[in-house]
Amino acid sequence: MECRQSSWSEALRRVSPLGMGYLPVGVAFGVLAQKAGLSELNIVIMSVLVYAGSAQLIAVGMFAAGMPPLSIVITTFVVNLRHLLMSAALAPYVRSWKLWEMAWFCGEMTDETFAVHSTRFNDDDVCKSLSFRINLLAHSIWVLASWIGAMAGSSIPDVKPLGMDFALPAMFIALLAMQAKNGLHWLVAGFSGLMSVALMQAGFDQWSVIAATVLGATLGAGVETWTRR
Amino acid sequence: MDQTVVFLTIVGMCAVTYIPRALPMLALASRSLPDVAIRWLSFIPTAVLSALLLPSLLVHDASLNLSLGNVFLWAGIPAFVLAVCTRSFFGTVALGMAIVAGSRYFFT
């Protein structure tokens, strides 16, 4: 495996734009989790073990609303199902890696680190040590930001004046803009979004997100298959 | 809140997050998925993000809110424009939170 640049400083350079995004969201997560009643230790454990910003913020909202653990786990599964495709997309580049290396690498794959690695791999930079350094740095920033938020939480009486409750929608907006590549993607986005609102209004709040996602992806795949003929 | 229950929920979340991250890479190391499956999967990120986003902007306390008082909706629009133009994760989050914080400070 050829490595042009694999130093920690190179990893930091690659991670810094993503880290700038992790900081506000991570701190917001820590503060909101503290407010929802999670212990400092559990907040840090969640950022270490789960390491998925949007799912963690959603889970905190569900904990605060007193939802049952099983629906929190199912929602997490649905929200993070999108990583399937990212993992499949990176698979061809890491074929020469050992199994445990792949297993470790994908445990630290988020929307943001996926974006960094897919850009690198497309540039023929598949250096293994740099890949792991980037992941470790990004993950550390996320854990550190959550911990700062968890500690600051008790001295922040209300998150609303700081706009922290908007961290999650803002994150969805940023991730959606990165994902939607063409008109058909925007059509799918519009359809799934409105479908999700409609299903929620019709009283299917438990299943609205997964149903809207499945219908939207099916519409997209259907239109693409039909127009390609 | 029972922290043991929280911890066990976190372990469950960890498992269901790890599976979709790892399964394709480990399974596809030597073969690939059928075309239709790849096409369908390629729309999942867009679909799920939008299905999560729109209700968070439009629905408050279980009812549709399109009024001027819906801060999230009016902060979401400029944040969206910035996100599409710059693709900046930090910029989008910072602008969105700043608008929400600012409008609450000045209008409430």
What does this structure look like?
The complex is a heterodimer of chains A (229) and B (108). By secondary structure, chain A is an all-alpha fold. Chain A has two domains: 8-162, no CATH class; 180-229, no CATH class. Chain A has helices spanning 8-36, 40-49, 53-64, 69-80, 83-90, 99-107, 111-122, 128-153, 167-179, 183-201, 208-228. Chain A is globular and about 55 Å long. Chain A starts with 7 loop residues before the first helix and ends with a helix. In chain A, 49% of the residues are buried. Helices cover 77% and strands 4% of the residues of chain B. Chain B is built from five helices and two strands, in the order αααββαα. In chain B, strands 1-2 form a two-stranded antiparallel ribbon. The longest helix of chain B has 25 residues, at 3-27. The relative contact order of chain B is 0.06. At the A-B interface, helix 1, helix 2, helix 3, helix 4 and helix 5 of A face helix 1, helix 2, helix 3, strand 2 and helix 4 of B.
Biggest sheet strand line-up of chain B: 1-2
Structural class computed from helices and strand pairing of chain B:
mainly alpha
Which spans of chain B of ≥5 residues are poorly predicted at pLDDT below 50? Answer: none
Computed over alpha carbons, the radius of gyration of chain A is 19 Å
End-to-end Cα distance of chain A: 41 Å
Largest interface in this structure? A-B, 104 and 78 residues
- Give the helices and strands of chain A as they follow along the chain: HHHHHHHHHHH
Task: Lay out the secondary structure.
The complex is a heterodimer of chains A (about 230) and B (about 110).
Chain A: H1 8-36, H2 40-49, H3 53-64, H4 69-80, H5 83-90, H6 99-107, H7 111-122, H8 128-153, H9 167-179, H10 183-201, H11 208-228
Helix pairs in contact in A: 1-3, 1-8, 2-8, 3-4, 5-7, 10-11
Chain B: H1 3-27, H2 35-42, H3 44-58, E1 59-60, E2 63-64, H4 71-86, H5 89-107
